[in-house]
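BUG-216 | component: ligand-complex export | severity: low

The export step for adenosine monophosphate jobs runs without errors, but we want the raw record kept on the ticket for reference. Input record follows.
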Amino acid sequence: MSYNLILLGPPGAGKGTQAKVLTERFGIPQISTGDILRAAVKDQTPFGVRAKAFMDQGALVPDDLVIDIIRERLSMADSAHGFILDGFPRTVAQADVLSKMLSDNGKSIDHVISITVDNDELIQRVIGRLTCKGCGRGYHLKFDLPAVEGKCNVCGADLYQRDDDKEETMRARLVAYASQTAPLIEYYTKLGLVRPVDGLGAIQEISNTLIRVVEG
Ligand code: AMP
């Protein structure tokens, strides 16, 4: 089956983790603007240098930069039969452009999965988070340690702490989420697309719920 999905939720809600599960299950790509931006920062492209200043402060990168990324990514062949947007859109302007981009190609969004977790839990999750340099899988210093310290269970690459996962930056990201991204819940509710999912609990149980929601 082909599904065009959006995963919406604050930083630390589990969007990346769940996107990876949905990718396996449905054979559709995870498109994470955060991952694409981090790769550009690492490669020090002009675009990455511009984006880094915003990311380091926990602020959103300007819409035009992110929209260019998505336009290019959605035109790639692997997105033709479905995709999971993880971390995009994050503003109403991005959502408007996305809807135009899709409708120009005779497509639309099937479900907007809105993952909810309270702020105290989000901060605990994010400040203990470790991320794999290779495949992007997340780990946690308290709740989900890798089998070998500092190495990914899946691909063996090194784990690191994201610069923006420090507590102060995380708090700024939560403020950006509340003011710029949370309004998208109402935006997509009006379109009848929002499927709320409680993001608290075992990863596997949440995945099962998501799969049920997508498959209807
Ligand atoms: P994420 O990995 O999704 O938490 O994104 C990390 C950072 O990348 C965010 O805090 C923003 O600075 C930037 N970013 C990712 N996606 C977007 C987006 N759709 N719009 C604006 N900034 C974004």
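Assignee comment: Attached the raw record above. The domain at 4-118+181-215 is CATH 3.40.50.300 (Rossmann fold).
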